[in-house]
Amino acid sequence: MMDDQNSPETIMAALSTLSPPQLTDLTNSISALFHLSYRRLYSILSFPTLFNLTLHHLQSLPLQQKSLLIARHLLSNLTILTPFIMQNTTTYSASSAVKLRDLDAVILLLLLCEFRQLYPEVLETPPSHWRSVLCNYVSDDILRLSGFEASSAQVLIKYVEMVIKCKRFVSVMGAAAGGNNDGKGGIEAATSAGVVVALPSVEVSENGNLECVICKENMKRGRDVCKLPCDHLFHWMCILPWLKKKNTCPCCRFRLPTDDVFGEIERLWELLAKMGGSSIV
């Protein structure tokens, strides 16, 4: 089911704010990812053994694990935008590397989901027939976007389509699996340990005029306190337990990076919405 949160307008508005050199850098990064994905897809469909092994791996996974596969793939693609959307905030992003086996699995899974929407009756046949049918289905797309003739516009449009498709699948599959990634937002996750360790300690310069909103006590002048990327200050003993449970500032709800895949997707998507001048409900 479509909603504003999964709308392509969110990411398109964000891309429209980039300068020509930034768009060139982004397009080159996306093209590199596409070439890797198409090489893997070509290998899967060209070799029956690899196709059967990948399909068997997929069929052995519960729905929740399939949703997590797509979520990790989505995060790895959203991370390309990190240098452009972080601006003055922290540049850290949760690890989004995808293992080759999982990459093969998610590429085939996305292809099967797309194909089922268009030709559901074909996948009712024995799996031994699927490989040849899928080869014919993707051949034109692979040749068009893996060749040198692909324009920057084609690459960016294909990227937006892929990101939105993954986000919708994650929302629908996560809801069906009973997870908390139902696309409604509000995911609570702990702040990444790497981010917490890197938070700066600053000395309070004002004399008793600053209050820690967690304990409601004033910060004494000369005391070392924690400074979040949003510039709000807290006692270290107060903010550390908070960050072990949440990745938001207690004052302004600014989101810090998290190692939770779904929480990090939501954080980056909110940054995209702000970058494009829109908001996510």
From TrEMBL:
<dbReference type="GO" id="GO:0061630">
    <property type="term" value="F:ubiquitin protein ligase activity"/>
</dbReference>
<keyword id="KW-0862">Zinc</keyword>
<dbReference type="GO" id="GO:0008270">
    <property type="term" value="F:zinc ion binding"/>
</dbReference>
<protein>
    <recommendedName>
        <fullName>RING-type E3 ubiquitin transferase</fullName>
        <ecNumber>2.3.2.27</ecNumber>
    </recommendedName>
</protein>
<dbReference type="InterPro" id="IPR013083">
    <property type="entry name" value="Znf_RING/FYVE/PHD"/>
</dbReference>
<keyword id="KW-0479">Metal-binding</keyword>
<feature type="domain" description="RING-type">
    <location>
        <begin position="212"/>
        <end position="253"/>
    </location>
</feature>
<dbReference type="InterPro" id="IPR001841">
    <property type="entry name" value="Znf_RING"/>
</dbReference>
<dbReference type="Pfam" id="PF13639">
    <property type="entry name" value="zf-RING_2"/>
</dbReference>
<keyword id="KW-0863">Zinc-finger</keyword>
